[in-house]
Amino acid sequence: MKKKLAMCISGLALLLGIGSYLALSNSQISAEEKTPQSSNETKKSLTTSAPFNGPSLFVQNSVLGNNKFLPIGPNDTLPEGYYFFAKPNKNTRYFKVNKTTRNKIEEYQHKPIRNQGAGLYSDDNNRALSDGTQAAYFSNVGEYQGKTVDMMISIEDGYSCRFSYTHNVGKGVTNSFGTVYGLMGPDKSSKITYSYFDNETGEPYVVKGIFSTFIDFNYNKTGWDHSQVDATYVNSNSRITYDTTSETNTKSILTGNGTNELTQPQYYVTGIFTGSSFCALPISPYSTGEMGMRYSTNLVSRMKIPTPQLSGSLENDGTKHSTSFSISMKQIVPDRLSNFSKYGYLDYTIPVNDFYKLKSFKVVNYLDDTDVTSNFTLSGNKLEAKSSFLNQDTFYGKNYEITLNYELDKTKDFFGFYKDGYLEIPYDPITQSSDLDGVQSSNATTAKIKWDYQLEINANDVTYGQGEIKRFNQEPEAFKEKLLTDSKAKGKNLNLDTELPVSVTDMAIDSKVGAYPVTLSTQDGDVTLTKEIKVNVVAMPPKVAIPEAGTTVVSSKGVPYSFSGTVSDEDSEDLSLFVTIDDGTPTTIWDKQANTDLNQPIDFTYEIPGTQLLELGDHVVKVYAKDSEDNQSEVAQFTLDIRGYLAFKELPPETLDFNQTKIGSKGSYAKLNKGVDFSVEDYRGSNTSWKLVGSLTSELKDSATNTIIKDGIVYRDEEGNETPFTTDATVKLSTGKATANNVLFPINWRPEDKGIFIQVPPEVKKGNYKGSIEMSLVDAP
Fold it and tell me: Where is the signal peptide (predicted)?
């Protein structure tokens, strides 16, 4: 009996020893949470362990007796700041790669796990790695400090294994995401490296992360490298032991026999670390050398829910002029073991802004886009997870994306958000509140909407002459300014109702006639608007004006004809002036006359030589000008009617003198005191007739006595016939008919026989008599 009693006392002492140890450990953890310390300080504060009363091998080998392992209770939380652990999401991709180069060998697609009932599942989401030269690469397994993180799992050279990328951790599937098993190689211990990379650059990426493993009954032995962690945590009721004989300052060999990762936190070991990689050290418990390592997102204790991470939407199509944007809130909800507390409430206070309104929201499981919006309610600006959802085990261990959809208030001047081509819409932090973790705030963020300002250019096509273009092109910048002025170019920001300057950005205009495109441009922010106008280069020929234009002018054969006029040109530097007669060879009046005063008339006079006017009839005279661009004016023309003239070639004398004569009883004749010679020329052409006639304009009269000799002036022809000059009839003095060879007709009056005589009647008084006659050359037979 005494022996039995002694055994009971010994057993009681063992239980008390364990109890006192646990109480001490819990007390130390609580103290650490109240006074924040570094990880190294945390280790030091937990170096004192309670004495063990009894010879139990478990107590002697328990990690609870090893000051490198910090015990933590189910209601305690891991240190804040260590939030990163790899977890697949809807954007994760899966590859087999070369371990050294990370070149892709094969890409895998994730397949749903099939529940076969009775706790059995069919899982095809695993692949083999051979020779240690291959690695499993997971692209996008989470975000850390605003960067997307990739993870690679690699093993030592010479080893082979299988790895799993099953999604539904905590569903009774043994080989969950990131687990390596069936590891075989030349030794019974190996190293599995979990490396982290910046998804964008591919460079190693340092995270403050969490590595957790479940030591199960199958692969129940693993090494643990303390040098790579900031602290190592085990459950305050941990059933994990360590090998005291191989224990070093940096390494422990751990053994466990866990059977259910959802209900046995006592078989978890969790390390927090700062680095770009973490090395797991599996050890084979079998003679075959087969090893494995459970990588788990379950933790030995609660982890405080991370603050939500906000990111604003980005709309890069500025032509949409969108007024909608969204805020994405990523919320990691850590895994929960069965003995961890559940949230009583979890809500989010959404910031209010006068410039935009919340229109809707959506919540999805970030792994597979499963819509769980119905598990949340929105009242005012408070978004709350329903208690029924928080009470479900399926709520935990997920990443959620909460999308808040907003619309800008179009009645407000939201262009104050405009910067560098975008509406940069500020969004204040969201406040997260829960009964377990208190109040904490997210980051602030900005949504960006590419906004191409609605710009406008009003401008007209313009027209210039060729000569103008020649001059303008000599000063291109001045030409551009003139073009903007003449086209009345104006730019405007229709959104802001502001005027904008317009510039010429593309211009190549030749002086040849044609339509040339010119590009105008205006800009506001990084939005540029262009508009094409046409510069029409036209021929602007000179203008010639002469009074005779369109008329017929009569001139005589062989007589020079002179005419005058003006020439003007709007744009050319010089002018040349030409005349043709009957479309003959042009005669140059001017050659490159300087046109210094644009569009002002320049006078000219030209005489057509008589030698060009010998042919009778109508002659077309054309006058035209050409400018320096070889543009010809309209022809100014008139008709010059060259007529053959009938005229005195030699005129008779204006005064005829007669000899004195005596008054006789029978009368007498007074003769010319000398012969009279004159001539008629007729250039009117062949077979034209003419006659020379005379008529009396005043009778002979003596001014002293006023005595008149009536019918005293007579003409005697070659036949001796006499005809007196009277006022009421004409006297034929001579006739002629022109031929091709006979155009000159001499007329000779001799005192003896032919010509004009004075017939003196017998009763006339003596005196000095004067009278006058008029001779006419008549175009008639």
Answer: 1-23
* In the predicted structure, residue 223 carries a pLDDT above the cut 90: yes
State the DSSP H helix or E strand holding residue 20, giving kind and residue range, or none if neither: helix 2-34
Token readout for 465 is: 């002459």
Rounded (5°) CA angle 723-724-729 = 95
Closest CA to 355 of 447, 450, 493, 451: 447
pLDDT in tens, 611-656: 888 788 899 999 999 998 899 999 999 999 988 888 888 988 989 8
Separation of alpha carbons 710 and 760, rounded Å: 10
Task: For 251-278, give the secondary structure using H, E and C.
Answer: EEEEECCECCCCCCHHHEEEEEEEECEE
| φ, ψ at 236 (rounded to 5°) | -65, -15
What is the number of alpha carbons within 13 Å of residue 706 lying toward its C-beta? Answer: 0
Euclidean distance between CA atoms 490 and 213, whole angstroms: 70
Contact 316, 342 (CB under 8 A): no
| Each residue's pLDDT tens digit, 654-678 | 898 988 888 877 888 889 999 999 9
Residues 6+ apart with CB under 8 A from 34: none
Cα 315 from Cα 654, distance rounded (Å): 111
296 forms bridges with which residues in the sheet?
Answer: 212
> 């001045």: which residue's tokens?
478
Q: Which residues pair with 448 in a beta bridge?
A: 314, 424
Q: What are the tokens at 293?
A: 């390592």
Structure tokens at 390: 């928080």
Concatenate the DSSP letters of all residues of 555-603 into one string.
Answer: EETT--EEEEEEEE-SS-SEEEEEEEETT-S-EEEEEEEE--STT--EE
Q: How far, in Å, CA of 225 to CA of 251, rounded?
A: 5
Domain spans of the chain, in order of start:
1-85+98-106+152-303, 309-450, 456-535, 543-643, 646-778
What is the DSSP pairing of strand 160-164 with strand 180-184?
Answer: antiparallel
Q: What CATH number matches the domain at 309-450, 1.10.10.60, 3.10.129.10, 3.30.390.50, 2.60.40.740? A: 2.60.40.740
Distance separating alpha carbons of residues 670 and 709, to the nearest angstrom: 13
CATH of domain 543-643: 2.60.40.10
Decide which of 1.10.287, 2.60.120, 1.10.1060, 2.60.40 is the CATH code for 646-778.
2.60.40
Instruction: Please state, as a whole number, how many other Cβ atoms lie within 10 Å of the Cβ of residue 638.
Output: 19
Nearest to 312, CA basis, from 140, 139, 439, 429: 429
pTM above 0.85, yes or no: no
Q: Return the residue matching tokens 């769980």.
A: 372
Is 646-778 the same fold as 309-450?
A: yes
- Provide the pLDDT confidence category of residue 192 given band limits of 50, 70 and 90: very high
Of 378, 361, 369, 232, residue with least CA distance to 301: 232
> How many whole angstroms separate alpha carbon 711 and alpha carbon 704?
19
Q: Provide the 8-state DSSP code for 421.
A: T
